[in-house]
Every structure is written in C-alpha cells, then in structure tokens.
Amino acid sequence: MSTFRTTLARPALAAALSGLSAAFTALAVGELTAGLLRPAAAPVTVVGRAVIDRTPAPVKDFAIRTFGEDDKLVLQLGILALLVPCAVALGLLALRSRPLGAAGVLVFGLVGSAAALSRPDATGAVDVLPSLLGAVAGAGALYVLAGRAAPPGTASPGHGNPVDGWSRRRFLTAATAVVAAAGGAGLAGRGLSGRRGQGAVASRKALVLPAPASPAPPVPEGARLKDAGISPFTTPNRDFYRVDTALSVPKADAAAWRLRIHGKGVTAPRTYSLAELLVRPLIERDITLTCVSNEVGGPYLGTARWLGADLADLLRECGVRPPSQGGGADQLVARSVDGMTLGSPVEDVMDGRDAMLAVAMNGEPLPFDHGFPVRMLVPGLYGYVSACKWIADIELTTFDAYDPYWVRRAWARRAPVKTQARIDTPRPFARPAAGTVVVAGVAWAQRRGINRVEVRVDEGPWQDADLAAQHSVDTWRQWSYPWRAVPGGHTLTVRATDGTGEVQTEERARTVPDGASGRHSVFVTVP
Questions:
Q1: SS3 state of residue 201
Q2: Given phi > 0 = left and psi -120 to 50 = alpha, else beta, which region is 77?
Q3: CA 422 to CA 443: how far, in whole Å?
Q4: Which of 139, 284, 328, 494 could staple 265 via S-S, CB 3.0–4.6 A?
C-alpha cells in the first residue's frame, strides 16, 4: 500500500511543480516582452491595475487605511499568491490531459490581455503581447514537463501510446533548466525596463530649475515649533505621502514630455513642452496637500515648497474663461500619462488661488513618485480632484458631460478640504510622566486658514492651545498645549476653528465620498 501511494504521490508532486514552473515561465517571458515593448504592460502590472480599477471605493479605502503606501505591494503579492494554487491545479490537470492543462495557461494569457486592453492608456498590440507570449511560453513549458511527470507506462491522454516517464532526477533537471531559463528571461526583462527609464532619470538629473519670478514669502520664524514629536513645517520629499493607483511609477523623459490644452471654450488650443513652461515667469509657494483618503488623525498630508507655472495664466492664453465670466466649461479634466483622470472646478482653478503646474518640490525637480516632470496643484481641494501627477493633457468640459475616474467610483465631484486638526504628540497609548506634558500637532483648512485650536482632557472644558505663526491660508499651522498631567488614563481631544469662524465638526464621517470628518483624540496613561 505504501509503495502504491508513493507511486501516485510522485507524479502528482511533479505535476504540481510543472504547473508552478509554467506559471513562472509565463510571468518571466511576459516581463521580458514588456521590457522590450512597454514596461507598464507586464502581466502582473496590467492585471493589478485592472483589479484596482474595479475595486469598490470602500474596499480601496480599507486597503489604504490598512496597508498605507504598501497597498500596491500587497496587491501584487496577493495576485501572485492566487496564481500559486491555480498553477498547481493546472499542473494536476495536465497530468490527466496535457492539452487541457496547456489550454488553461492560455486562458490566463487571454485574461491578462483583456486586462491590458481595458486600461484607458492601452495602445493595442503592444499591451497585449506580453500576456499572450508569456502564456504561450508557459503553456509550452507545462505541456513538456507534465508529459515527463507521468509515471512510466501510463497512456498519454488523447493518444493510445504509453508515455516514457522520466526518472525523478531527469524530471528535476528539466524543471530546473526551465526555471533557470525563465529566471534569466525575467531578469533580462527587468533590466530592459530599467534601461527604458534611464533616459527619464538622466533628464531629471540634467534639469536646471529657473529662479521663480514670484518667490515664496519666507516662512515666519514663529511658524516652526520646536516641540519634540511634532510634524516639521516643511515635509521632506522622502517623507511626503504617496497615494495613487500606479503599480509602476511612470517615467517620462523631460525632453519628450508634452501637455495639450483643449476642449470646450478653448479658443486657442495649445501644446506645451517642458522647456516652454520653464521659460515662463514661475511662481513658488508653500502649499499643504491633503489626500481624501486621510482618516481623522491620519498621515496622508504634507507641506512642500512648490515651483511651477501659473495654471490660470496658461488657461487664459488658450482663451478659457471661468463660468462666472461667461465661460462654457465648468470642469477641467486632467489626464496623466497612464490614463488617470481627475476633475477640478474651472472656477476654483481661476479664482486667484495659486493653482499651478508644478515642476519642482522643495528645491529639486519633482521626484518620479510625485509626478515628474509636471504635476498639477490646486490649493484647497483634496488631491483626487486637483493634484494630477504625470500630467499630459487638460480638457475643458462640464461636470454633466464627463465623470472622471474617482467620480465613477462613488466619490464626490467637488471636494474642498475640510477643517481638521491632528495630535502628533503624545502618540496613542503613550505613557508620559506626571507633570507638564506638551500636547502638540498641526491643523489645516486650506484657503481659509486656522484661527484657533483647542484641546480637551477627558470630558473637561476646551482649553486654547498656543498657535504658531500662520504662514499662509494654504499651509497647515502648528500648535501646542502644556498639559498638567496627573496619574491615570486620559483621553486628549483636539478641535480647530478656521478663518471663517467655523468650528471643526464632531460628527464622524468616513472618507467616502468627500473626506473624513470628526475630531482626533488619543488615549494615554500617566503612571
């Protein structure tokens, strides 16, 4: 009995390994083909992007809350984890019928091709070939290895003749050769993808930023508090949050980049190069950006010094007028190089705020993660309706005529930033010593500014916090409060009042559809 079970187990194990080897081959050849044609068309990337596009807004919001900026890595690992049992199943199927097993691999290739074609930036055969060629290579690998996994003397399905099964050593040798060859193909593909981005990297290094025609006002001395644990007034580029749908960060060459402005009410459509933007009189401003996925007290906001071209001036050059001046378009749709669309109110973009096409961040060209070579910024609006990274196209239209990416997924069409405050220190569940404890953090209400911040200990009265100097209405404001801590467990809560006199609401709301609301609190224990 033991010998019989072993005889059955060995072919099954070999078949499973055949399926895994075939899956690896398919992915590796797909990676190589994508490296030769278009890195963004790699099979895992296109399937991942299709999953992101079809994920309901609450699920997407949960992923950001749970995994933060690692949400894309978790998605890719999840796709690979799902492929493992599928590959094993196809290997076992091929043990019974090699044509059916190979056909199953081809089906996965068709799924990847369909995912590639579903993207708004799809370019046809170039996007389809990586998945198709990878599937063909994987099907071939499975067909060959599964035939060798069968025990000697068994009938080949679809044929009447016995299969000459290989010994375990010869099977493993063949499987190892297949995996090694696939691994080489995958590494070559990664190398080619990296080389294709070298031109963009070189263009960023060579970019010389001009001096701004309108420099940012100096940050007041009193705007930067020195309390330990508080967020710095200016967020370093390496710490600036990143929330987007790009599984692979676009790398556009600065010399080849173009921006087209066209659409409803555009009497003089134009296409701009980066060189043409850089010779314009640029503006420099400190602006706080906020992601709509930021929960109450969350980390997805930051302040940077941005340099860019005045967006309203560009639109006026193209003949655009805001609705208040008789313009026919009330929505500006920004499109990125990877097909993402964001919609901004034309009136907000042209009402005098410092909306810009940014080319630099904190004194250096935009990092690739943050939109190099050019991104859009509109102070006072959440990022999903204003901060298009890797921008390549601006179309003027109406809110009735077109729903951008996030609006089609249950988010609001208009989304001004809500008044919020956050406690940075002490951290939740901290154990500060009794005595004076500095409670500190930041508050923000872009376009309105912050006039007051108050702190409450447990259910006590609201107490005024000390405010740092306000740099501008478009930046956050630091605050601190000296709390006389006594032993016990305590809940610290903060609220802000904006420049219009409106007090931050205590009503809790999730991020969908137009940003979270409520008051941030932390629980601490004083020993």
A1: helix
A2: alpha
A3: 6
A4: 328
Residue 259 host element (H or E)? strand 258-263
Among 20, 36, 369, 24, which Cα is nearest to 190's?
36
The β-bridge partners of 105 are none
Structure tokens at 310: 């005045």
Number of H helices, E strands in the chain: 11, 18
Strands 391-397 and 258-263: parallel
Neighbours of 295 (CB within 10 A): 16
Q: Cα–Cα distance between 140 and 151 in angstroms, integer?
A: 20
* Average of per-residue pLDDT values in the chain: 91
| pTM score, whole prediction | 0.88
Alpha carbon distance 352, 316 (integer Å): 12
* Structural contact between residues 51 and 136, judged by C-beta atoms closer than 8 angstroms: no
Helix axes 57-67, 71-96, angle to 10 degrees: 110
CA distances from 205 to 180, 197, 208, 365, 372 (A): 36, 13, 8, 8, 11
Question: What is the Cα–Cα distance from 516 to 512, expressed in whole angstroms?
Answer: 7
CA atoms within 13 A of residue 377's CA, in its CB half-sphere = 31
Separation CA 232–CA 286 (nearest Å): 13
Pull the structure tokens for residue 210.
């001009």
Q: Sort strands 331-336 and 435-444 into parallel, antiparallel or unpaired.
A: unpaired
**Which residue's entry shows tokens 């590959």?**
87
CA torsion through residues 82, 83, 85, 86, sign = positive
Contact 7, 151 (CB under 8 A): yes
CB 300 within 8 A of CB 515: no
If one counts every other C-beta atom within 10 angstroms of the C-beta of residue 160, the result is 6
**Model pLDDT, residue 152:** 53
29: which residues sit within 8 A by CB, 6+ positions away?
Answer: 133, 134, 137, 138, 182, 185
Percentage of the chain lying above the pLDDT 70 cut: 94
Place of tokens 């003027």: 396
How far apart CA 509 and CA 513 sit, in angstroms, is 9
Tokens matching residue 114: 């369909």
* Cα–Cα dist 250/40, whole Å: 8
Residue type, 447: R
Contact 360, 366 (CB under 8 A): yes
- Decide if 301 contacts 399 (C-beta within 8 A): no
Phi, psi for 167 (deg, rounded to 5): -70, 165
Crossing angle between the packed helical segments 71-96 and 98-117, to the nearest 10 degrees: 150
Determine contact, residues 504/495, Cβ cutoff 8 Å: yes
Q: What is the pLDDT of residues 86-136, one digit of tens each?
A: 999 999 999 889 999 999 999 999 999 999 898 877 777 888 999 999 999
Asked if 244 contacts 383 with a C-beta cutoff of 8 angstroms, the reply is no
